[in-house]
Design goal:
single chain; eight-stranded antiparallel barrel; globular
Length: about 160
C-alpha cells in the first residue's frame, strides 16, 4: 500500500470513529431531563373547633325518598369537644359526642325522639366540614324498630348565627 492510501484509510477511520462518538454524545446532549413530578396538592386545613365555635341554623334534607322536607334545628358548637348539642324548635336538646379527623368533625347523638317520624326513636351520625363559612356535610339517621326503612341519609348545611 502506498503512503497516500494509508493516510486516506487512517483519515477515513478517524472520521468514522469521530462521527460515531459525536452521534452518541449528541444523543446524550439532546435528551431532555425527566419531567419533575407534579407536587402533591396541599392537604386541606385541619378542622378547628375554636374557629367553628358558635351557633348554627341547620337544615337537614333527605337525599332520597318521598319526604324531602327539611328538619331544622340549632347546632351549638363549642371550642372543644364538650358542649356540642342540637336544639329542635320544640325545645328538645340533644347532646353530641364530637371527634375531629383532618378537615372533618364527626358528631354522634344518643337515642332521642325523632322530629321526622312521630313516635319513633332515632340516633344520628354526622360528618361535617367548614366550607364558605358554613358547616356542610351528611347525616345518617338510624331509626329503632323501623325494619327495612331504618336508615335515612340527609344533606346537612348550617349557617353560623351572628
Amino acid at each position: 500500500m502506498n503512503s497516500m492510501t494509508r493516510i486516506a484509510t487512517l483519515c477515513s477511520a478517524a472520521l468514522l470513529f469521530a462521527a460515531c462518538s459525536k452521534g452518541e454524545e449528541a444523543a446524550k446532549d439532546t435528551t431532555t431531563p425527566a419531567a419533575a413530578a407534579a407536587p402533591a396538592p396541599a392537604p386541606a386545613p385541619a378542622f378547628s373547633l375554636a374557629d367553628a365555635a358558635g351557633q348554627y341554623d341547620v337544615s337537614a334534607v333527605p337525599e332520597s325518598g318521598t319526604d324531602t322536607s327539611a328538619t331544622k334545628y340549632v347546632l351549638t358548637a363549642a371550642a372543644d369537644t364538650a358542649g356540642w348539642s342540637i336544639t329542635f324548635p320544640n325545645g328538645l336538646k340533644v347532646p353530641m359526642q364530637i371527634t375531629v379527623s383532618g378537615d372533618s368533625v364527626m358528631a354522634k347523638t344518643g337515642t332521642f325522639a325523632s322530629q321526622r317520624r312521630k313516635g319513633a326513636k332515632v340516633m344520628t351520625e354526622s360528618v361535617m366540614r367548614m366550607a364558605g363559612g358554613k358547616l356542610t356535610g351528611t347525616t345518617v339517621a338510624h331509626y329503632q324498630n323501623a325494619g327495612a326503612d331504618s336508615v335515612v341519609r340527609l344533606r346537612t348545611e348550617g349557617t353560623k348565627k351572628p
